[in-house]
Amino acid sequence: MTIRVAVAGATGKMGRLAVRLIEEADDLELHAGLDSASNLDELDGADVVLDVTHPAASQGIVEAAIEAGAAVVVGTSGWSNERIAEVERRLRDLDEAPGVIFVPNFSVGSVLGSAFAAFAAQHFDSIEIVEAHHAGKVDSPSGTAVRTAELVAAARGDAGPVAAPHADQRARGQLVSGVPVHSLRMSGLLAEQRVILGGDGETLTIAHSTISSSAYETGILLALRRAATSEGVTVGLDALLGLELPGAR
Ligand SMILES: NC(=O)C1=CN([C@@H]2O[C@H](COP(=O)(O)OP(=O)(O)OC[C@H]3O[C@@H](n4cnc5c(N)ncnc54)[C@H](OP(=O)(O)O)[C@@H]3O)[C@@H](O)[C@H]2O)C=CC1
Ligand SMILES: O=C(O)C1=N[C@H](C(=O)O)C[C@H](O)C1
User: Fold this and answer.
1) CA-CA-CA-CA torsion sign (75, 78, 82, 86)
2) Other CB atoms within 10 A of residue 81 CB
3) CA separation for the pair 75, 78 (Å, rounded)
C-alpha cells in the first residue's frame, strides 16, 4: 500500500528533507507540500500529515489534519505535555480517530541520549540540561530539552524533584519539570544537547551533537510509516524504537 503524505512546512529545511525522502521511497507518495501561504484544505485526502512548521502554527495544522481524518506526525517543537494532553482528549471524542505521533527529535542518537539520561536520573540528584542550536531557531528551550526534562522528572519517581538550588536567578536557566535548562543560540552549529548529572564526588555527562540534518532521515521515515496504522497519541521516537523508559508516558 502506498501512503499519501502531505508535508506542512515543505519549503523549510526539514520539509525539503522530508519531501526528498518521500519522493525516493517506493511506499510513500507526496500528496501535497504546504508553506505558510497554503490553504489547509490541501490536507484533504492525505493518509498522513507531517508537520514541520513553526510552534505558533503547529496546533492549527494538527487540528486541521485530524479534521481531515489524516494521521499526523508532529516534528515541530514547542509541544508540552499539557498541550499534547489536549490533543489526546480531542481524539477520545471522535468515533474514528487517526493516530498522532509527536516526535521532539527524529535523530536516533538524540533519542538514545535522552533515554540514557532518564535511566541515570534515579541515581543523581543534581541534573541540568544545556542545549545549543543554530541562531535561526525561534523557540527555546528546544523541544528535545523539554522532552528530556520531562523524561528525567518522570524517571525519578520516588527520588523526588531534581535539586535546583538558587533557581530563582535568571542565569540559572528555565525550570522544565523542575530541571534547569540552559539554551544557547549561535552561529556555527546545528543542534547539541548535554545532560549533566552530579552525584557524590562525580559527574556524568551525556552529550549528543547533530552535525547534519541527515541524522533525521531514519526517524522521519519510521514515523511516517508507523503513523498510517497508529492509534491515539504516541510521544517520542523512543516508543517507535521499542525503548521502555522508566515512568514515561
Ligand atoms: N523533530 C525534529 O527532529 C526536528 C524538529 N525541528 C523543528 O521543525 C520545525 C521546522 O524547522 P525548520 O525546517 O528548520 O524551519 P524552517 O524555518 O526552515 O521552515 C519552516 C517551514 O514552516 C513554514 N511556516 C512558517 N510559519 C508558518 C505558518 N504560520 N503556517 C504554516 N507554515 C508555516 C515555512 O513556510 P514559508 O516558506 O512560507 O515561510 C517553512 O516551510 C521547527 O519547529 C524546528 O524546531 C527541526 C529539526 C529537527
Ligand atoms: O530547530 C531545530 O533545529 C531543532 N529543533 C528540535 C528541538 O526543538 O528540539 C529538534 C532538534 O533539536 C533541531
Assistant:
1) negative
2) 14
3) 10
How far apart are alpha carbons 131 and 182 in whole angstroms? 6
The residue with cell 525561534 is 138
* Cα 192 to ligand 2 centroid, rounded to whole Å: 9
Pocket flag, ligand 1, residue 110 (CB < 6 Å): no
Catalytic-residue membership of 137: yes
Contacts of 133 (CB under 8 A, 6+ apart): 140, 142, 183, 184, 185, 189, 190, 191, 192
Q: CA nearest 191: which of 145, 127, 237, 147?
A: 145
User: DSSP alpha helices (H): ranges in the chain?
Assistant: 13-24, 55-67, 81-92, 108-120, 143-156, 217-227, 237-240
Number of other residues whose CB lies within 10 A of the CB of residue 13: 14
Q: Is the peptide bond before 98 cis (omega within 30 degrees of 0)?
A: no
What pLDDT, on a 0 to 100 scale, did the predictor assign at position 16? 98
> Does 236 belong to an annotated binding site?
no
> Residues 188, 193, 197, 202: is their CA dihedral positive or negative?
negative
Any binding-site annotation on 148?
A: no
Above 0.85 for ipTM, yes or no?
yes
The values of phi and psi at residue 211, to 5°, are -105, -10
Q: For 89-135, write each residue's pLDDT tens digit.
A: 999 999 889 999 999 999 999 999 999 999 999 999 999 999 999 99
Distance (Å, rounded) from C-alpha 79 to C-alpha 57? Answer: 11
